[in-house]
């Protein structure tokens, strides 16, 4: 096998949205992302700390969908490495010229074995890093894109694909026989990509990093003030997995966005993998709160390299939500508390 | 009618608990209250800022219950005023000598018209205020008792009783025909007492004030670390009513304790009453999250002046939880978001 | 002596500023106060939680000055009580009709014995309380006016005047022979008015309350981003006195504004007075940092009832800053640390 | 030249302290580091998130000093690479067997060209990561060692040495002719090592990362409560360089420790270097506060590979503190504010 490309990190997602104005309100006025560029068909957004052109593209379309997950590679030569590597895997790849996406240099696109449209690029337009423009901070004060989370039927297969690509596995949810979810990273955080078991390929969520828990609380307060609290799907809370303080929002098209804080350093090669038992109610919420069903069931459609919706494959193994109901120690524990 | 006594504030609650050691762990090691005094049968606890002897008594007993809600009055003469006032209302009153409760001077006890054992006192032993002993802070860093919340069938009657006693009504939950809940204060905060509609008399919760939201998050993290997350019943979240950031815990006997922050100033005589429509999903949680059913249904037994459990009266008017199911705009709003 | 008027709280200050546009930038865009009303000559501002018309008036004038410190009284009849009380003290008083200050009803003005123009009013126009309009929050998210702090040569005399008016003394700075500063309250916080020893009458500062320490940090970050860090005079830090987390700013005219958080409950009549030794370096900054000299030396001119600058009386007793230099244990303690 | 070793990150410092019990109090009870191991002569400490054996060794000795700065390398083979690389530079190197420092495998020690005793290791004993043991959190809740900061006369020479070793330069302080300070990183943060201009080799400080600004404030509050505020040398405040929220402490021997939060991601190879003008008063404190002189002047003695104190070389170029006095816009700006 050829050497895999040297991926730096999750760098950008492109979402298809049906009402660009409504999405602009949600991502810029409410979340607080900065507009790097905009035209009639698309918005290019970034966090306060990002000096690369954008980390989110919102493109106008008929049906909400994920168009692409983009990663940055270390050198221009990693594009050749990528073509060779994915070609050897028999995956469909395409080389697209600089500017195919505004601000992004030449890139390699591939439909990964899980069915996700993946893009690798190195060259990117630099824009001002706004970290110390506190006068421009608002919303959740998003610093940067943190990670992608995708739904896929076969977690073990996904784990293998990303491990071969050089991702380290930081955490899992599992039991004696089944892998329910896995978190994998190239950069020195808990993840660049997480795999959630379910019918796929679907996009579960993208996540932006914010410096402190207070930012998450403030965002929820603002949504309540505006009567837009229905955008809050789950949380705020503390994750067991990753230890992050989080909230999950649904954008105007139903795309799920996580706001994510704290995390921990995972950059040493022997960083231990933390394996959560699927029966530990703290794995998804460290405070033991039940996860709302929509969070397990709903996810965004994914497009192929030609922009057509991908067909779903069902999960063959047990679903986490089904295993947890009944097995969950939460209710039992709480009952015993009282008598 | 005689002039009512001049009540300063909610000052102390006495709870009957079945396992004093387990309760000590919960209230001191976990919540972080300070032990002023302890003997084989009782613990006397206070918050970091309290220089009056205690704000919570935990007394060993056979069955969990509320023994007493105590208020401080402005002068010793207010005890006479209390006897005259409650006597004129035909309520059973008792004068108990100093030291009947450790640290508390002479007091007047009365069974209020809602069936709650109420106590008024002025004299109290001073103890060190620990506000600036940050080296002793732990748990949720509780500053002081903030308020009581009681379940009673007839909110309008309760509202009348407390208003006559000089409490100002800061907020309500209501609709065109029904009062579901009311918040009333003597001190300059949102409440010293809240009335929640339901079978009563029962104690819904007592609440301690902590300076910042971060304290609430940290407490939940600690409970998760210890595998004691079942003590977290609801939240953390932002209240619509009161605007406070909150979490509800259940103690080892199932007594509910709220940790409460921020609040607002209500001390002017024309402070406006904020009336929440029962159909506004933000009234109980400003972020629109559903309230867990146990929070509406469960509450602590209340003792009479002789220590016998009070019989319950059912609520004749509609229950908030029943009105909200269906009428709640939450699901509708979220659905509309997606298609 | 007649009974003093029943003062509720410090309610509003009127400052003379030389450049209304620059002041508007400072108080609304930077601090985040809300504009209730504005005309060519004045701005009427309030905090997010205030439903009374304003807590700060900025009036255009030739020279920066304090025009007035206003307190709210419990009833309209307290205006008559005020006239009688201050008249009996031989102080010059004036009754001014409703609307003399926009939004404020009939009022009594008096030149207090310390030389400060004091105003008492009851009636006031109600405006929307914006506590839960988090979408409008910005700057330091000021909730409400908290207190005034004035410089006056004779602290004992000032203490007597305010105590006679029914203020409780919460804290002092003193030594065996001298009172250097005192904090006195009508509402249930540490103070409505603080007295700082020095040539007077001068206004040391006015203070706004914000819910959490993070708000103070954010404000400083914004000032740094804009290159306006010179507005930050002292702090952020923790006070010994009051235990508040604070920062002191200087507005475009040099008027000092404190942003103030946390505080503690002082509403019981026997609330203990906390007496700080002037030699305890933690009294002004609990972390032991030296106070910048400008903070001790500089303060705003005060106008009399006719709008003429008041002449200054020097302090006869020792100045805190002089006593502290040398006596301060700080350097010594730090040296001994390294020996 | 041979290929340099692949350094992962700053991993551990060894400090000589004169009173191990007093140091234990400071680093464990006050700061909140965890004791991995202890014997009569040394303490091995780590942050809550660290699964490698320790990040700080305190070793009993006659005179306070820095004994060693240790970095972790990616593979065991990097030790050979290190020997070859440093040997080719003509630097004295030593290979020490596993266990020379408790918990650390075989290592290479070298006296770097700036005169600092540097150590590289790969193998290390794993210990429990305590990230989610919130019940054990106290003090400043330190997550992990973040960086070293050293004083050295020739910043350009230091910059060259570390750049050749593969460090990226994230920020500098400079003017047209002089480099005053530089920040360089291997991991994806602002720095693993910072160079401060001054007589050297001396250790300026070591820094621990804590998740949120509130942790820093709490630590200062605790130090004030204990009357130990003299340990607080500078801050809390916001850095211009690095954007971190910080405080500098002095340990019982005068060793300087920084507590450090937030930071930003620097892991892309084209991460821009942020160059601060030495005349920008916000470079060291974003809020414009003057830096206390001790912070510029004082630093810890450094030992050579045989444990003997290194002689100091004076700085030939201008000192930042001298350039800043007078050139600093702060006083001017503040004066102009008041005209």
In short:
Four copies of one chain form a homotetramer. Chain A is of the alpha+beta class.
The amount of beta strand of chain A, in percent, is 25-35%
CATH homology superfamily of chain A: 2,3-Dihydroxybiphenyl 1,2-Dioxygenase, domain 1
The top-level CATH class of chain A is: Alpha Beta
Apparent shape of chain A? globular
Architecture of chain A, CATH level 2? Answer: Roll
- What would you call the structural class of chain A? alpha+beta
**How many structural domains are formed by the residues of chain A?**
1
Unreliable sequence segments of chain A: 326-339
Number of helices of chain A: 7
Q: Largest interface: which pair? A: A-B, 32 and 33 residues
Account of the protein in words:
The structure is a homotetramer of 339-residue chains. With 339 residues, chain A is an alpha+beta fold. Chain A has one domain: 2,3-Dihydroxybiphenyl 1,2-Dioxygenase, domain 1 (Roll). Chain A has helices spanning 20-30, 77-88, 155-164, 213-225, 293-297, 320-327, 329-338, and strands spanning 7-17, 34-38, 42-46, 56-60, 65-73, 93-96, 107-111, 117-121, 144-152, 168-174, 179-185, 193-197, 202-209, 232-238, 245-250, 256-261, 274-277, 300-301. In chain A, the strands form two sheets. In chain A, strands 9, 10, 11, 12, 13, 14, 15, 16, 17 and 18 form a ten-stranded mixed sheet that branches. The longest helix of chain A is centred in the middle third of the chain and has 13 residues, at 213-225. Mean pLDDT of chain A is 94; it is low at 326-339. Chains in contact: A-B, A-C, A-D, B-C, B-D, C-D. Chains A and B meet through α4, β14 and α7 of A and α4, β14 and α7 of B.
